[in-house]
């Protein structure tokens, strides 16, 4: 049956709406092979339609299958692209290595470009009123207080604060830190706010 | 109940303001790149072929012939049926899948809440919208409307209930999403009403990635 492999790909996306999967290189290759085959068969039959008019219907069926495959692959890539965009906002400009290896080379290139564009835009913000850029990934929730108490969830290492103090972030240690310094780390799941 | 409905509708409005991203997703649902729409169009519908199709015998698993003869009925995916139907002249005539037929319509009109849409048709409403135009008596559209109206109370109950596994069970895929959205909204509305401190939290994708990694580690 036509276009069945591509549905497995789509189901993969549907199953995990909140996480990104390994780029399915192998399956994409198989689908493109199927499309090449369909195209070749269609070429042969289209050339033969002068003798046998009824072949024309077959050509139309295969053509629909080709278009279907194309649509599904585009949808797969597009939905991954949307997730990669979210990666930039949630993990930051530097991806952890285990996430990095889930992306294909082209996707990683796209990520770097997107990341660069976003940084450029954020730097250009507020220049007319004397700021040198605004980090849009900060303060996604209205800040309630200047300092918050946090619990460290993983062994992170040293964190240097803006005033020059160095804090050692060890697992299960508690700290009282400026909100502005730790909200990125909270979003990355390294710290947890204690209420 | 009326007050509940109103608060739900109000919540939905608030929801759109808080999460404009989700609204954008729903407009995408009818689009070329929508995953849901692709899954809906993979569902099979019975079709009658009006022309001979040489070399297409494999579409009908029961036929031994290489060619597909005009006049035989085969179940083919909706995307193929739609595209063949829209040719001039149409190559197939699309028939209704069984849950949109007279007998099932009667059941749905009698008591839609008694039907387990998860088992019968995951994408009941979406597929219905596609096949409604192939219904000669055009009763399918009214049935869809009526079904949703009857099931709305059930949907509301599912989104309010804490025992989500049992109440969510008979809902179709899109109903499940609606119920989940409604209960999320309800929760964020309540926290907003309490004016409590909103603690800073880990980003959604980061948390999910970590959860899944932990599950993989445990499996090893």
Automatic annotation (TrEMBL), chain A:
InterPro entries: GINS_A (IPR021151), GINS_bundle-like_dom_sf (IPR036224), GINS_Psf1 (IPR005339), PSF1_C (IPR056783). It is found in: Nucleus. Coiled coil: none annotated. Residues 144-194 form the DNA replication complex GINS protein PSF1 C-terminal domain. Keywords: DNA replication, Nucleus. Required for correct functioning of the GINS complex, a complex that plays an essential role in the initiation of DNA replication, and progression of DNA replication forks. GINS complex seems to bind preferentially to single-stranded DNA. Belongs to the GINS1/PSF1 family. This is DNA replication complex GINS protein PSF1. It comes from Bombyx mandarina. The lineage of its organism: Eukaryota, Metazoa, Ecdysozoa, Arthropoda, Hexapoda. The gene is LOC114247300.
From TrEMBL, chain B:
GO terms for cellular component: GINS complex. Pfam families: PSF3_N, Sld5. Residues 34-85 form the DNA replication complex GINS protein PSF3 N-terminal domain. It comes from the Eukaryota. SUPFAM superfamilies: GINS helical bundle-like, PriA/YqbF domain. GO terms for biological process: mitotic DNA replication initiation. It is found in: Nucleus. Keywords: DNA replication, Nucleus. Residues 100-188 form the GINS subunit domain. Component of the GINS complex. Belongs to the GINS3/PSF3 family. Required for correct functioning of the GINS complex, a complex that plays an essential role in the initiation of DNA replication, and progression of DNA replication forks. GINS complex is a core component of CDC45-MCM-GINS (CMG) helicase, the molecular machine that unwinds template DNA during replication, and around which the replisome is built. This is DNA replication complex GINS protein PSF3.
């Amino acid at each position: 049956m036509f276009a069945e492999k591509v549905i497995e790909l789509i189901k993969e996306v549907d199953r995990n709406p909140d996480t990104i999967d390994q780029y399915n290189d192998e399956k994409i290759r198989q689908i493109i092979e199927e499309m090449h085959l369909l195209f070749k068969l269609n070429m042969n039959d289209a050339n033969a339609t002068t003798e046998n008019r009824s072949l024309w219907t077959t050509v139309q069926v295969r053509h629909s299958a080709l278009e279907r495959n194309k649509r599904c692959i585009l949808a797969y890539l597009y939905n991954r692209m949307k997730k990669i965009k979210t990666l930039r906002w949630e993990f930051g400009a530097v991806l952890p290595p285990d996430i990095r290896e889930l992306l294909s080379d082209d996707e990683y290139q796209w990520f770097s470009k997107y990341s660069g564009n976003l940084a450029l835009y954020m730097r250009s913000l507020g220049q007319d009123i004397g700021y040198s850029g605004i980090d849009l990934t900060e303060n996604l929730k209205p800040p309630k207080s200047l300092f918050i108490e946090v619990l460290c969830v993983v062994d992170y290492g040293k964190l240097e604060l803006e005033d020059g103090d160095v804090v050692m972030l060890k697992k299960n240690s508690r700290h009282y830190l400026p909100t502005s310094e730790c909200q990125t780390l909270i979003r990355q799941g390294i710290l947890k706010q204690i209420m | 109940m009326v007050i509940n409905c109103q608060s739900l509708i109000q919540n939905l409005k608030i929801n759109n303001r808080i999460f404009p991203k989700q609204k954008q997703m729903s407009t995408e649902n009818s689009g070329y790149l929508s995953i849901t729409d692709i899954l809906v169009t993979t569902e099979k519908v019975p079709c009658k072929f009006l022309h001979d199709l040489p070399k297409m015998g494999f579409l009908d698993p029961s036929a031994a012939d290489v060619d597909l003869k005009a006049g035989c009925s085969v179940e083919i995916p909706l995307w193929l049926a739609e595209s063949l139907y829209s040719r001039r002249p149409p190559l197939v005539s699309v028939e209704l899948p069984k849950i949109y037929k007279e007998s099932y319509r009667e059941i749905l009109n009698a008591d839609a809440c008694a039907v387990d849409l998860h088992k019968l048709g995951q994408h009941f409403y979406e597929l219905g919208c596609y096949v409604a135009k192939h219904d000669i008596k055009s009763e399918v559209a009214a049935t869809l409307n009526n079904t949703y109206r009857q099931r709305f109370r059930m949907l509301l109950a599912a989104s309010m209930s804490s025992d989500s596994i049992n109440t969510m069970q008979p809902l179709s895929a899109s109903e499940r999403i609606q119920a989940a959205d409604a209960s999320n909204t309800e929760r964020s509305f309540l926290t907003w009403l309490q004016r409590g401190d909103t603690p800073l939290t880990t980003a959604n994708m980061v948390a999910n990635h970590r959860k899944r990694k932990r599950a993989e580690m445990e499996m090893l």
